[in-house]
Design a protein that fits this description.
Helix content is about 70%, strand content about 0%. The chain is elongated. The N terminus is likely disordered.
Length: about 300
């Protein structure tokens, strides 16, 4: 039986090749990226953010938690290498250093939450689409129920019970973000499970779990990757919103959302306290969305053939 299953023809359509892309596939992606200005811009912004997070201790001129009350509300100097290049906040903390270190928090929360949501949503969508029946109905009704509640209200309610903090924030964002993955994966699994190689595996007696993981999952992974690339930006925005409300990352850990909140009372006199962290949020979300749009257009064969 195992020998017979091993003789099943491999399915190398465009979607399944993304699990282990051959050299020609990487070259095609590279040529597509070079030919896309928006894609290149998105990648450039993302690389800037990633390197800022990795090299934060070397880039930041001082510690993000050091307070110099004598330099409170110091205006931006606009000169690279000069202390308080982007100004100081109401406690005399260097804004540039706090923004650079805040990049780590945003990426950590964004990637971790997407990892949790993507794994949970993909597994639930895979089971719902392949199994069908009562289990499918239960999973989809839970998804519909969660969609009926505004995300921010649901997140505030859960954090109100668990309490604010970095770990709780990651868990809340991850658990509340699974629905989009499950619905897309389920819809694709309904189509994939009717293909010849899946039916052949069923006839040969392969177990359901083996079929789902080996024959079905590789064909839905590209869609999951595209959703995840776009969801990172949404998670960063959600973290910033919750931190702005005081329900996210707690002081003295630097967070872009809490930094914007720190300067909301000083907009007229010290606009830079809120403006520069807000610009960092905008730049990060812009770069991720540009890259996600390019990735969607590149991986979706229906868009490539138009």
């Amino acid at each position: 039986m195992r020998q017979a299953e091993a003789t099943l023809p491999e399915h190398h359509d465009h979607l399944s090749t993304l699990t282990r892309p051959p050299t020609s596939e990487w070259r095609r992606l590279g040529r597509a990226l070079i030919g896309s200005r928006t894609g290149l811009l998105g990648v450039a912004i993302m690389l800037l953010i990633v390197f800022s997070a990795i090299l934060a201790p070397r880039i930041a001129p001082m510690s993000p938690a050091v307070q110099e009350i004598t330099h409170s509300f110091a205006a931006p100097t606009w000169q690279i290498g000069v202390p308080y290049m982007l100004g100081a906040d109401h406690l005399g903390r260097d804004l540039f250093s706090r923004i650079v270190f805040g990049t780590r928090i945003s990426l950590l929360i964004g990637l971790s939450a997407v990892g949790i949501a993507g794994t949970l949503g993909t597994m639930l969508g895979l089971v719902a689409g392949y199994q069908g029946g009562v289990l499918d109905s239960i999973i989809m009704r839970v998804a519909d129920l969660q969609l009926s509640i505004p995300f921010l209200i649901l997140a505030i309610a859960v954090i109100g019970v668990l309490g604010p903090g970095l770990l709780n924030l990651i868990v809340v964002l991850g658990i509340t973000g699974w629905v989009s993955y499950s619905r897309v994966v389920r819809s694709e699994v309904l189509s994939v499970r009717e293909r010849e190689y899946v039916l052949a595996a069923q006839v040969l007696g392969a177990k359901r779990l083996r079929i789902m993981l080996r024959h079905v999952l590789p064909n839905v992974l590209p869609s999951v990757i595209v959703i995840a690339s776009l969801e990172v930006a949404r998670m960063i925005l959600s973290e910033a919103a919750l931190s702005f409300l005081g329900l996210g990352v707690q002081p003295p850990t630097p967070s872009w959302g809490s930094m914007v909140a720190d300067g909301r009372n000083y907009i007229a006199t010290a606009w830079w306290i809120s403006a520069f962290p807000g610009a960092a949020i905008f730049l990060a979300v812009l770069g991720i969305n540009l890259f996600g749009d390019w990735l969607r257009d590149t991986l979706d064969p229906r868009l490539r053939t138009r």
